[in-house]
Amino acid sequence: EADPVVGGGPGGSCRARRLYVSFREVGWHRWVIAPRGFLANYCQGHCSLPATLPGPGGPPTLNHAVLRALMYSAAPGAAGLPCCVPARLSPISVLFFDNSDNVVLRHYEDMVVDECGCR
Amino acid sequence: PAAPGPAAALLQALGLCDAPQGAPKPRPVPPVMWRLFRRRDPQEARVSPGRTPPGATLRRPCHVEELGVAGNIVRHVPDRGTRAGIPESAAAGQCSRWTVVFDLSAVEPTEQPSRARLELRFAAEEAAMGIEGDWELSLAQAAEGTGVGPVLLRQAVVSLGTPVRAELLGAAWSHNTSVPRSLHLVLALRHRATSACVHLAEASLLLVTLDPRLCHPLARLRR
User: Fold this and answer.
1) ipTM confidence score
2) Parallel, antiparallel, or unpaired for β B69-70 and A84-97?
3) First-last CA distance in chain A
4) Which of A18, A26, A60 sits opposite B222 (nearest CB)?
5) Were both Cys, which of A21, A85, A117, B2 would link to A59 (CB 3.0–4.6 Å)?
6) What's the rounded mean pLDDT across residues B54-65?
């Protein structure tokens, strides 16, 4: 399940959008004990100026991204805009039965997008 | 059949070679696994969905704080043996010995073991009820047939009221070797002062391993 992006297209400046991954949708609900799913989220939005510039409390912005946004505003055809990508991620843990009927707890890093940034 | 399309890709991303086939035999989830899951899953503890509270202390990746060891996979492996006592020991008027079997074939060669905690629950006969202290647990490798290999571990047991735990890493296999595909052990529990006997009600293994392929160095915190 994902938030619909209003008005089609990238929809506003670069930020995290809600994306819920349901283990039932993938058909794993019989062997995944918990969680039922998790909020993975995703990044989308414009990285033109001023969105590319560092905002208060936002993720650190790469100078190169600012440079590209400046170049783009001066000469749109030269190089594209920076990309809106995950800037800070969190882990999740999954509890499940494996093929040998063991109860397994696995920890996965970088599974949830907490913040997006222009790169 | 291999999982089709995106499910296969997600499985691979999760380091699982295939999804368990069919519905597993229903079995209660051991409380220790629930506890570890609840403490470990940030989304369970998060105040608002989708956000790590600013300033939250980052858990060390690939470390199981509750058990104090490195690791990103914890398995609760039930005993596959029959836990029937070994007949010849009972015939000799001694207390029973038991064979326990742990199937560790699900552990991949790249996984490095950091903890292997054997957990035993005993049910004492009437005569042994209330006899505290002075029990001794001994563990040996099972040999072919009903043979018994060398003793791997001897441990004093103070009380039978709580689960008896024994660390196997370094005893049943050495620290820097990969996990064996299966583990056959012979257990015996004796009381030093009396001839009281107990029987083994349940045996399980809590195995912690570290899969380096799923580990990333701690992200550089914001300067």
Assistant:
1) 0.80
2) unpaired
3) 26
4) A60
5) A117
6) 69
How many degrees, rounded to 5, is the angle at CA B123 between CA B118 and CA B126? 150
Selecting from B19, B29, B75 the residue whose C-beta is nearest the C-beta of A28 gives B19
In angstroms, what separates the C-alpha of A47 from chain B's closest C-alpha?
21
Q: Where are the beta strands (DSSP E) in chain B?
A: 63-64, 69-70, 73-78, 97-103, 112-124, 135-142, 148-157, 164-167, 182-191, 198-210
Helix (H) / strand (E) containing A37: strand A37-39
DSSP track, B170-218: TTTB-TTSPPPSEEEEEEEEEESSS---EEEEEEEEEEEEE-GGG--PP
* A positions 19-58 inside 8 Å of B (CB): 26-28, 30-31, 33-35, 38-39, 41, 57
What token pair was written down for B149?
Answer: 């290999």
Q: Does A105 touch chain B (CB under 8 A)?
A: yes
What are the beta bridge partners of residue B206? B76, B117
Residues of B in contact with A39 (CB under 8 A): 43, 49-50
**8 Å CB contact between B96 and B86:** yes
Residue A98: its chain B contacts at CB < 8 A? 20, 75, 106
Q: With contacts defined as CB-CB under 8 Å, which chain A residues touch B21?
A: 99
| Nearest residue to A115 (alpha-carbon basis) of A30, A57, A70 | A57
Q: Is B163 helix (H, G, I), strand (E, B) or coil?
A: coil
Q: Which two tokens stand for residue B59?
A: 């858990």
Q: Which residues contact A74 (CB under 8 A, 6 or more apart)?
A: none
Tell me the chain A residues in contact with residue B43 when contact means C-beta distances shorter than 8 Å.
Answer: 35, 38-39, 90, 92, 112
CA B36, CA B63: separation in Å to the nearest integer?
Answer: 12
* Largest pairwise CA distance in chain B: 71
B143-171 pLDDT, tens digit per residue, is 776 677 888 899 998 888 788 999 999 88
The rounded mean pLDDT for chain B is: 78
Contact A101/B at CB under 8 A: yes
| pLDDT beneath 50: ranges in chain A | 7-8
Q: Do B23 and A30 touch (CB under 8 A)?
A: yes
